[in-house]
Structures are given as C-alpha cells and as structure tokens.
Amino acid sequence: MTPATTVHSPHRLYGRNGELVLLDRMLSRLRQGRGSTLVLTAPPGLGRSALARHAVEGRREGAVLHTRAAPAEATLACSGLHALLCSAIGPLPPEADDATRAGTAPTALLGLLRALGARGPLLVCVDDAHAWDRDSRVALGFAARRLAPGDRVAVLLTAGDEPGGRDAFTGLPRLRLGPLDDTAAGALLDHLTDGRTDPVVRDALRREAGGNPRLLTALTGRLTPDQLAGHAPLPHPLPGAEAVLDAYAARTRALPADTRLLLLIAAAAEEHEPEGAGADAALLLRAARPAGLDLGRLQPAERAGVLRGDGTRLHFAHPLLRTAVLRGAPLPSRRAAHRLLAAALDGPHPARARLVQLACATGGHDPALADALAGAAAAPGPHTDRATALERAAELTADDTLRGVRFAVAAEHAWLGGDPGRARALLTRVRTAPALGHAPYVRGLLALCDGPVADAHAFLLAAAALLADYDTARTTAALLAAAEAAWAMGDAPAYAAALARVPTTSAAKPAPGPPQPPGVPVPLTPRGVPGCPSGPSSAADAPPSRPASGPPLRRQGGGTITGGGARDGAESSPAAGAGAGPGGGGTLGLYVAGMRDVFGGRTADGHGLLRRCVEAGERGDDPDGLLRSAAAALVVGDVDTACPAGARALAAVRVHGPQVLLPQALEHLAYGELRAGRHARARVHAEEGLRAAGRLGRRNAAAHLHAVLALIASVEGDARACAEHADAAAAVAAAHGLAQAGGLAVWAVGRAGLAAGRCAEAAARLGPLVGPGPRRGHFAVRMLAVPCFVEAAVLAGRAAGAAVAVEEFRAWAASTADPLAPAQLARCRALLAPPEEAAARYEEALAHHDRAGGDFERGRTLLLYGQWLRRRRRTSRARGPLRDALVAFERCGARVWAERAQGELRAAGEAVAGDTGGGPLARLTPQQRRIAHHVAEGATNREVALRLSVSTRTVDHHLRNVFALLQVRSRTELARLLDRSGS
Description:
The chain is mainly alpha-helical. Among the domains are: about 15-175, P-loop containing nucleotide triphosphate hydrolases (Rossmann fold, 3-Layer(aba) Sandwich), CATH 3.40.50.300; about 195-240, no CATH class; about 250-475, no CATH class; about 820-915, Serine Threonine Protein Phosphatase 5, Tetratricopeptide repeat, CATH 1.25.40; about 915-983, Winged helix-like DNA-binding domain superfamily/Winged helix DNA-binding domain (Arc Repressor Mutant, subunit A, Orthogonal Bundle), CATH 1.10.10.10. The chain contains 46 helices and 11 strands. The strands form 3 sheets. Strands 2-3-4-1-5 form a 5-stranded parallel beta sheet, with helices on both faces. Helix 7 (about 200-210) packs across helix 8 (about 215-220), helix 18 runs antiparallel to helix 19 and helix 30 packs antiparallel against helix 31. The two termini are about 65 Å apart. InterPro entries: AAA_16, P-loop_NTPase, Sig_transdc_resp-reg_C-effctor, Tscrpt_reg_LuxR_C, WalR-like, WH-like_DNA-bd_sf.
C-alpha cells in the first residue's frame, strides 16, 4: 500500500460552519430575487476556493458565471472577463463583446450583468480574482459596487490577503478566513486517516499545519501508515509542505534581491522567537550592515504586504510566509544569514541566542558547540529558549545516548514552558531507549497532564528506577509525580509506596552504571496539585488503605548534571526540600514526612509536620513551597489559611512561572475558596484555570476544574451548568482514570439533585461514593460528600444506610481543623436522632456554625431545622430558622436553595417577597402550590411526600383539591396549564 492510499480526500469543509451559513443565506436571497456581493479573502490553503465551489454547486436554479483566474494570463488585458463570459451556457446579449474591451469593459459589464439578472437570478463567482489582469479587476469591481439588490445578481469573489491585486475591490463587503481551530483540524485529520493517527503524530501535524487545511492534507498524504500510527519515526522537517509554501513564497519573488536577503535574515532572526513576537529590528540592522544593507531596503516588502514594522519589531504577514522564505532559500544562503546574526549577537548580548544562531549555521556534528549550548541551556531564562538551545545541542551531538538525553530534556523544558505539543515532537526524536530515564520521565509528565494516569504512574516509576544512580533531583521529581498519578486514580497504597521511595538526602550519588551526560540541565520541575486540590483533612486513626484527603506533592527543581556529578544550578534544588526531613525547614521535606505519617496511620504526628510545612511556606515566595503550604493547610483542614497561601502561590506562578503550573495554581485556589464558602471567587478562578488548561493542553487539569465548577454550580443552583461541567469532567475521568475528578463530579450532581428535591436520586448517586467496599469513592472525596448523602438518604426514607457513614464522619471530624466539620456532624446526627433529641442536635449544629461562619452550610442546617419544626406542626417556631436560611442562601448566591427555603416559608404560612398572587395558582394555598409544581415536574405522590416531608395521604388530599380548583383532570393538563401561564 502506498502512503497516498492511506489518506482520504476531504469531501466536506471543516471548521467553516459560519462561512457556509453566510453563503447559503446569500444564495437563498438570490433565489428570492435579491442580489448581494461578498469578497472572501484568505492566505493560500485556507479554503477560499472550496467555499467558492460550494456556492457554485449549491446553486440549484438560475444562471451561473464561474471561472478561476489563470495567473499566466495576468498580462493580457480583459483576459479574466473573457474567461468569465466563456463560462456562460447559452447565448449572451450583444453588449457582451463590449465587456471584453479595455475602454468599454466597466460600463458594458455592468449593463450585461443587469441584463442577465433581468432574465433570472444570476450568480457570478470568480475564484482568485486578485490574480486577474488589472482591466478585468477594475471592471468587475466597478460593476459589483453599482449592482443593486433588485438587479438579481449575486457576486462572490475570492482573493488573496495581500494588498496588491485586490485594490479594485475596495469598498465591497469582505470576509477574511482564519485558520482552523484545533477541533476542526482534528476532525479533518480524523477524516483523512479514518481516525487512526497516533496522538503524538496528530499533535505534530496540527502544529506544522497551523490551521491550514490544504497544508494539513498535504502533510498527512506524505506520511506512511507506520508513521501515521506512530510505529515509525516522523521525518524532520515533515514533508509535503512544498506546494503551499511555494504559494506563499510567490509574493516575494518579484522583490529586489537586497530585499529578499533582508527578509531571509529577518526570518532567521524570528525563527527562535515566541510565536507572534517578530524579529528585533535593531538586531536585523546590526546583522545587515556587514552585508552592506540597511533597513530601508525593506520598503518594497512592506508595500507588498509581506512585512510590517511597529518601530522595534518586524513581523511577517503570516507565519507560513516566514517559513516559506526560510525553506525556499538555498542552504548556503540560510547558513550565511545565521552567521550574520551570530556575529551581531556577539559582545554583551545573551550567549544562548548567539550559540543557537551558530548552531543553525553549522552542518554535521560539533561536540564543542553542542556542549556550549547545553551549558547555556542550564542558565536561568525562559524554558522555551532553553528547549531551543538543547534541541540544537542534540542535533550537533554525535553520541546517540547523549543526543537522546538532550532531546528528552529539551522536551522537558518545552513542557515547562507550556508547549506540550513541542515536547511530544521532541520526544519522537529520541532514538535511544530509554535515554538514561529522561525520556520516560518526560513521557510520564506529559501523560500526567493529558493521558491515562495509570500510564503516567508506570512511566514515572520506571524513570525513577533508571535515574536513581546518577540524578537524585529527577528521581525525586519522578517519584513525587508518580505519587500524584496514584492520587489522581485513587490508589492509596500506590501513593504511599511512591512516597516511601522518595530520597531523603540531596547528595548526588556517583554513577556506577551509565555515564553521567555532560551539560544536561535539570530544570525546575514543579508538580501540580492533583485533580481537585483534594479534601481538607485525613480521617482520624484511618488505616493506610483509607487515608483522607490532601493533595500530593510538588517539588522544586535545579542543578545541572555535568561530567563530574550534580551541582546546584541557578534554581533551587529539589533535594534541598526533600533532604530537610522532619527536622528541617524545607516545605518539601516536611510535606513528604507529614504525608508518610498520615498514610501510615500516624495522623497526629503527620498533622504536626504538615502544620510546620504551612508555617515554612509562609516565609518564602517560591511557587512550589507556597502550593505545598496551601496543600498542607487543606490536609489538616485549615481552609482559611489555604486560601491566602493559594493566592500567594498564584501570584508567584504568574511572576516567576513556569507556565505549566498556572492551571493547577488556579485550581488549587478555587478549591480552597469553594471549601471556605467563597463561591463567586472560586468560580472566577476556576473559569480562568479552565481557559489556561485548554491553552496549555492539560486535559486532566481541565477535568478537575470542570468538577470544581460543577460543585460551584450545585451551590449556586445552575442545574444546566452543573450537568455540563460534570459531564465534561466525567468524560475525561473515565478515559484517563481520574477517580478523584469523577468522584467530585458525582458529588456535584448529587448535591444539585438534593437542591431540586430529588432526594432518592441524590441518595442513589452518593451512596456508592461514601459507602464501603470495592465501589467506594476516592479517599479524598468520601468524607466531604457524607453530609449530602445523609441528608438525601434521610429525606428519601433510607436512614438505615446513613448511620455507618455518620460514624466514619465522626472519626474524620475529630481529626480535622475544618471548623465546619463539627457543625455538619451535629446536623447529620440531628437528621438521624429520635424526635426528643433532634432539636438539641440542630441547636448544637447552629452553635458550631456561629463559630465557624459560612452562609451556605449554615443555611442548609437552618433549612433542615425549620423543615423539621414545621413537620411537627411547630409552624410559628419554624418561621425563624426558615427566614434565616433564606437570607443565608441569598447572601451566598445559592438560588435553588433559596427557593426551597421560600417554599418552606410559604408552607409555614408566611408570605415571601416576590409573591405576586396572580396567575392560575393564586387560588391555591402555599402547600397546594408546592405540590402542584412538583407534580407538574413529573414527581409521583410518594416523591412529593418525601420532598415536602409529609405523608402520601396528605399529598393525595391536596392534589384532589388542586385539580378541582384549577379545573384540570390529569397531571398532564396541570403541567400544560402551569407551562402556559409561566407559573
């Protein structure tokens, strides 16, 4: 099978729904006798011709004039108009001859189009109109501007986005096509390859194509089936881009030779800049002087729309135009441009940038330059720049093992810089296995961000074993990341086992086995908080197999492995924290020791160490230390301390980086704020974290953030948002084994059901989450969901199953510093208590709430207390707690919970603000209105009785009266009546 046979041609347009709708409306208006004009502009390959073809093929009736410009005829006057008129089917009016003469073409063409429109609706479609001869362009633009809707002529033109060639169409309605987004590009790629492309290959193809569908199709068509499936390495650079790049390069061929040389130097200068940053004009000037050039020679390129300047930076009109200039130049010319840039970067300029330019000018292997680049990569700076330096160093390295290590560590820096796609592409260039443990280490980090966490766990443990003899820093990082993977999948023994292997000393061991590669930097490799930053505390006296909540670990990075062993680098050493031990002041050492004690059943000792970790974190400004401090605060249940620590950590990440930490810093802060009852602030931070996770390709973090947003929505009462976020979290959780994210999503949906009065459904959802046995929920979620489960089970008439959960909750509440836990425990006991004890339990819970604060949980206790009092006909006494519950819910934005409190107040005989007394329900009592609403929603009489804490007989009695008063005969008629009235 040839490579081409594995790829299908695209039969439909991807990512162009908006443009297709616009064209279909244009054709629909034309069928109704109303004409219009549209110019579609785009760089080559973005699908403007495909859209024009769609319009022509979608024209079901009426005449069509359609042609595509022939660049070879661009010098022949009126050749474009001649080709357009030759596409007509049938005879043309006599004025058609004048429409192809330069002197009469504009007015004759206008008259001709009006005459044809008078016969019937006419579509005029010219593809690549910018490539027509000038006379044809001017005549067509003249006519299109003067056609009225009543002339029944629709004009659709496509043109390039360069200034030259489209001025004749100035003033016409214009739509510029943008590149495909990742979703559309992925859909096109799935169609081209039947969805059989390896994820790493998909990433590489999407990155190289940059949203250009023609380029993506060409690149895919040049790969073999083994390459597409990931069984064979990808060529570097990817083949197939020649035709598209040649179309971009065509814009530069008519420029003067000096201008083209300056463009080549500018393209070489921008090659290693961040996307969209452009080239430094001052650097370009210094590099051009030895060649006898000045920047004034760039004016022709600016006039042609190839380049633009903003004073200090020069920007190509399109990234592929820059790529076309570089790849289209002969190899000696490219190397000469890089040598000019390297010379211009001599002196006080950064050594790393100069060395990179020298590497680009060098062919073959150069061990000395490779070592110099690797050494420069160890210096502080942006991780993307350090990745570039190591990539170039690897390309110049002859030794296969060292070459593979340098590619792997370059991938690590790319990951830290927030570019996982580049990291995966770099890993594909590692030809040695296992590259001394570095490649599996980075693969584990990538899988932890966006992949099955069980795979990440296996990769990271394997990496730790390979790295243990010569790289203590990365060994520690790999084990901490493996612990995080175990945490995310809910495997407590695996979490404890990974922690037990974390080295307790920072001293680098000699390398008895594999040689230590020279010049490979050990970058900062922080670890994120797992999924949802976990629960607030551990269960008291919990056995190792049932530890309580708390986020896993982060580590600091640093050091550069040289030929003589590990030495401290510019960044803090991870082992400094790890080696501090219980007696040291490092947050990492205290955290590791504390979590070992907690998971070993020594809860009191572990909490003591974790409190010291909180204090140690408050004295520093390192993002890792601050995040560990906030995590430790959640483990011991001090949510009020976790929030400011999380805020400081977020600020530190934004200031110092690395970018890869941003989603987790936002997630950690959002979860702490959610636990502290600051729901609005939690939502803002979680939404920002979700955007950051999407931008950085961190689907696992996005799943946890979706779960946090689902929990927030279950408080605020947005049932639709809760379901959407929970579904998004559950989809990734199921595919990647994220037990914690999945458990949080279930908790959110169960709490939303409880808010809506669907108690039996909520109890059914939450039961497996908090119960014992193999289906039990994540150890960090179980205790947090118990209060919701107990409430749902009791209100649904299933109190028997809640007693065991309350006993477990009692043990957990005794060990946590969370001030809400005693109040929630007292509330659970009140729900299960006999009538003579329940009131005292509720009062006890309210006393705890008065000390703890938090409107939402206090409102829930007040609501249940008021409901309990009303059910026992203590109506006047019930109104006070219910009023307070309503106010508490309104203060924290819990809309649906506030509506429940309003309903209880009405049932207690008190008017509620906002009641209008109008509509078909005006004749009903408050209790009858509540029953009518529940029945209209589809609830059975038994379900209504459970929701309202009354007997089924009472519901039957009230429902008969509702039917009689509203003169309806069935539940269906009742639902229709309420729906029509909006009641």
